Amino acid sequence: MNLKIFLKSMKFAFRARKRVFAFIVIYAILYIQVGKGLEQSAQAQTLWLLVAFSVATVYAILISQFRRRDIAILKCVSWSNSDVMLLLIGEVVVVSLTAFLLIFQLSVEILGVAAYFTIDIEGPGLLRTLHDLIVLQPGPMFLSLFYIVILQIPGLVLAQVRAMKIPPMKAIREE
Q1: What's the pTM?
Q2: How far is CA 2 from CA 7, 40, 68, 163, in A?
Q3: I need a labelling partner for 57 at 20 to 30 A (CA). Which of 13, 89, 97, 104 fits?
């Protein structure tokens, strides 16, 4: 793996700030819902894993669609298909890990505030509502990270197939 390209993909991801930040929020909500779904019945688990698969696939397709011109330019300057794929993987990894760390941080902060002020989370109030909405147990939290990362693989394969069909001459053509 070319670490230089992987690190470049992280910088490259934040060029499209609106899309990246929107999908960080979407992935954060997805982590919460998949984690909560893993604590429920088998039908709920299947439903949320299907939703995670759908979101991951749509995001990978959107990346390959919006990065068509960039990919064509990179191919013109002799980037290989594996380098382009690594660029796509880097953007997906940045978004999914950032969303996971955001949820992890919020969970720790909510639990920390409750412990610091010795507030009973079981009672009614704002902290109880936040706890119910955001905080996940460590097992489902890390299991949801694992599932979402694994469920992104088919979407990345589809994105790679779409990205490899982009001709290098597309960079020169006017649109």
Answers
A1: 0.81
A2: 9, 40, 21, 19
A3: 104
